[in-house]
């Protein structure tokens, strides 16, 4: 079995108060329950909004500097993710499809090395 990262992406200006409703929350709960029942879910977590991120960078002098905001300047960011244990990529992609529907958002699936 291989472990897969299934990540949900949101635009930087994502506002859960206007984008999410009870039906979406229930769909995500049902998906989580299904993952647990199937024995594939290892971990699940949502992330704070990207505006609360802190980026750390080591300089040539070895000092590490912190800056407010994300490390990468993009229009989308990872909003949450699952770590799943699946038999193969096809199975992980099937879970990713369900996540895209439940979360109403783009999903990225990658295997851990």
From TrEMBL:
This is YciI family protein. Gene3D superfamilies: Dimeric alpha+beta barrel. It comes from the Bacteria. Pfam families: YCII. PANTHER family: BLL7171 PROTEIN, BLL7171 PROTEIN-RELATED. Residues 9-99 form the YCII-related domain. Belongs to the YciI family. Transmembrane segments: none annotated.
């Amino acid at each position: 079995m291989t472990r897969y990262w299934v990540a949900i992406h949101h635009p930087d200006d994502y506002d859960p108060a206007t984008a999410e409703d009870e039906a979406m929350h229930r769909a995500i709960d049902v998906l989580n329950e299904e993952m647990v029942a199937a024995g594939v879910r290892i971990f699940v977590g949502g992330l704070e909004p990207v505006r609360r991120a802190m980026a750390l960078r080591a300089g040539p002098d070895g000092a590490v500097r912190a800056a407010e905001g994300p490390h990468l300047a993009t229009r989308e960011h990872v909003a949450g993710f699952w770590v799943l244990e699946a038999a193969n990529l096809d199975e992980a992609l099937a879970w990713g499809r369900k996540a895209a529907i439940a979360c109403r958002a783009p999903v990225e699936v990658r295997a851990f090395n």
